[in-house]
Amino acid sequence: MTEKSKVYYGSVIAGQPERFANPSEKLDKILEHLDLSTIEKKDKVAIKMHLGFNDGYQTVPVFFVRRIAKAIKEKGAFPFVTDNPTAVYNAAERGYTSETCGCPLIPIAGVKDGYTTKKEVGYKGVEDLDAAGVLLDADVLINLTHTKGHGSCGYGGAFKNIALGGYSGPSRWHKIHGVVAFDSYFDKEKMTKEHILKLREACPRDAPTWSEQRKEPTMAFYACDQCHGAEPKPCEKADDGLTGWKIQKDNFYAFQELMAHASKLILDSFDKEKMFHLNFMMDITPYCDCMGMGMPAVIPDIGITGSRDIVAIEFASLDLIGEAGLIEGVVKQIPHSYMRINPDLTTDLHPFQLLHGPFKDPYKVAEFGEEMGLGSREYELIEVLSPKETGEMDSSGHTYEGGATFF
Ligand code: SF4
Fold first, then answer.
1. Which residues does 322 contact at the CB level (< 8 Å), separation at least 6?
2. Which of 27, 117, 156, 315 is most buried (CB neighbours < 10 A)?
3. Which ligand 1 atom sits closest to the C-alpha of 202?
4. Whose CA is nearest to atom 8 of ligand 1?
5. Segment 220-279, tens digit of pLDDT
6. Torsion sign over Cα 167, 140, 79, 158
7. Quick check: 82 and 48 in contact, CB under 8 A?
8. By the 8 A CB rule, do 287 and 150 touch?
């Protein structure tokens, strides 16, 4: 029997209100288990994370980033935080600076987003992608991810952090996001501007649209929640068979499959022993960090997972999110927001599908990744400093902030 991939997990729940039960201690323990000894002296270590956008501040807190940078420096290596140039340039607005992170912040594809290496893909009309040069220059990858929902695929996790974050802007936005339009779901010959605008009018999410730039009909897949499975779908009804417009699963899976390909191209450029994945399941918002705005957390805070297997960590994190479920109080407010939710919350779907629709299966990208040999869904979840364990630890040395302590 093959060994299961290890996924270490630290919960946000503490057995006692003590420092030793804090998530930061659990992060340290996870890093210890992941065994950073494969990081060599003078290695350049990329901490790839999302630094947020505009006023979007719900990313991995700098408190933890600094802790990770410290652990890397203790190995004699040189960490640096990296993300797309825009996010790096204004990262200070959201609290990330070289002083606070404890290491430099470097734009992932150079100062003009043009320091890239072409990687051949050959998938659904995408011939190649421009991989971020600074990321590829690194000896070690710390794939540091804030897990959250995502409009195009239900879930943004470890794969998405690398697949989209590891490429220049045009590859990310036009090629990877653009792949959703490849599979045909209507007859382009029969579709006119007037007709697609009629479909748009029928759609409660304004998803079908006309691109003035490309002079062609298009569909905002990130906006389509598939009417949460309701039949008939207003867009299909409005089409009335004229162009054969049909909302199908495959159109939603292409983005996830290309993300798995894009991740593989990045991961293949690193030594297998020099890749570490960390998922932070805190402040789990419905949409991605590049929305540029604050959003209510829709899932309770869960904790941190760490693994050397990107597939295993995604399966484990999604299972934990599934178990935690949606926050009832927030769900009640969704009808007053820009989102919709499945009217039947008892249906057997993952919370991210309840938010983004049944065809946005959050596991799909990891399934594709597994098929490509990037890891295994068979995981062993090893909890570190569990509430029970920390509940039984000696707290006699406790110091409260009763006065100035300066330690
Ligand atoms: S399925 Fe619903 S949300 Fe999606 S395009 Fe059609 S009408 Fe719009």
1. 350, 351
2. 156
3. 7
4. 203
5. 999 999 999 999 999 999 999 999 999 988 889 999 999 999 999 999 999 999 999 999
6. positive
7. yes
8. yes
Residues in contact with ligand 1 (CB, 6 Å cut-off): 203, 205, 207-208, 224-227, 233-235, 247
* End-to-end CA, the chain: 50
Residue nearest to atom 7 of ligand 1 (CA): 203
- What are the pLDDT digits (tens) for 73-98? 999 999 999 999 999 999 999 999 99
CA of 259 to the centre of ligand 1 (A): 23
Token readout for 4 is 């299961």
Largest CA distance in the chain: 76
Instruction: Please choose from 226, 236, 252 the residue to mutate so as to test ligand 1's pocket, defined by most ligand atoms within 8 A of CB.
Output: 226
Distance from residue 257's CA to the centre of ligand 1 (Å) = 22
* C-alpha span between 386 and 191 (Å, rounded): 57
Domain edges within the chain: 5-174+252-391, 184-247
Task: For 277-321, give the DSSP string.
Answer: EEEEESSB-SS-GGG-S-----B---EEEEES-HHHHHHHHHHHH
pLDDT of residue 97: 98
Taking residue 64's Cβ as centre, other Cβ atoms within 10 Å add up to 18
Residue 53 CA, ligand 1 centroid: distance in Å: 28
Which residue from 228, 231, 221, 284 is spatially nearest to 258, judged by alpha carbons?
221
**CATH 3.10.620 describes domain 5-174+252-391:** no
- Helix/strand/coil for 121: strand
- Other C-beta atoms closer than 10 Å to the C-beta of 407 total 3
CA distance 159 to 261: 10
Instruction: Name which of 164, 163, 161, 130 is nearest 143 in CA terms.
Output: 161
Atom of ligand 1 nearest to the CA of 225: 3
Please state the length of the chain: 407
Tokens of 65: 């980033």
Q: Which residue has the tokens 């926050």?
A: 327
CA dihedral 39, 318, 153, 88 (to 10 degrees): -40
